[in-house]
Amino acid sequence: MSSAYSLAAIGHIKTPFQEKFGIPRQSGLVDVAGVIEMLPGFDKPVMFEGLDAFSHIWVSFVFHQCLEQGWKERVRPPRLGGNQAMGVFATRSPFRPNHLGLSVVRLDRIETRAGRVRLHVLGADLLDGTPVVDIKPYLPYVDKVSDATGGFAPHPPETQLQVVFSERAEEQLLKLMPEQQLRTLIEQLVALDPRPAYRKGAEEDRVYGMRLAGCNVRWRVADAQAIVLGIEADDPAQ
């Protein structure tokens, strides 16, 4: 029996996340909208008959930006502060032998346009452009195990930072549409404190940034408070 298999992308997901930094470390932590655009051959409406009866779906995908970095036998999970190593199969690290990921997201709606299907989802934790290799319905009676234990991550991460916007950031938000939706997204993502564990509690003058929804968001942290310094739209010419 051959031990080599090949996978073909059946679609790609569009999300506001333009880089890895700032993406929630699990799906569903922030109500981030995404759209799975199915590729030709996998975009026929008949293939999705009955899926709209399910509230959530499993999305199998490839950590495509980690392929060239290979995989590791042991990794340092962020939930352990990056200070303790665990076996790769005891984590959800992207540095896996086959670089496969699995996320459960809410199925908001199924859109059929010009005979092609797009899935609108909520709670996405995937980089924009991530290749999707499979979609399955979430079955509550079997997928939600009431007596399951969570090892070193028994509970969801708590919001760690209070997020405030500088006067400059407030002015920039007013020029962006939809302003309130972007504000809420920034608040929820930055509040989770995406900084590496070794950065927390130090270098209060350090400015962090992430590319999000066509914008460059910059902030710094002081006394458990994240101050958003600027929200600048990307230069379309770049």
Write a brief caption for the model:
This protein has two domains: 11-143, Elongation Factor Tu (Ef-tu), domain 3; 162-233, RelE-like (YaeB-like fold), CATH 3.30.2310.20. It is built from three helices and twelve strands, in the order E-E-E-E-E-E-E-E-H-E-H-H-E-E-E.
Structure description:
The mean pLDDT is 90. A hairpin with a 2-residue loop joins strand 11 (215-222) and strand 12 (225-233). The strands form three sheets. The protein has a six-stranded antiparallel barrel with strand order 1-2-7-6-3-8. Strands 9-12-11-10 form a four-stranded mixed sheet. The protein has helices at 140-143, 167-174, 179-191, and strands at 11-14, 33-38, 56-62, 74-75, 86-87, 100-113, 116-122, 131-137, 162-165, 207-212, 215-222, 225-233. It has 238 residues and is mainly beta. The protein is globular. It folds into two domains: 11-143, Elongation Factor Tu (Ef-tu), domain 3 (Beta Barrel); 162-233, RelE-like (YaeB-like fold, 2-Layer Sandwich), CATH 3.30.2310. The chain is built from three helices and twelve strands. Helix content is 11%, strand content 32%.
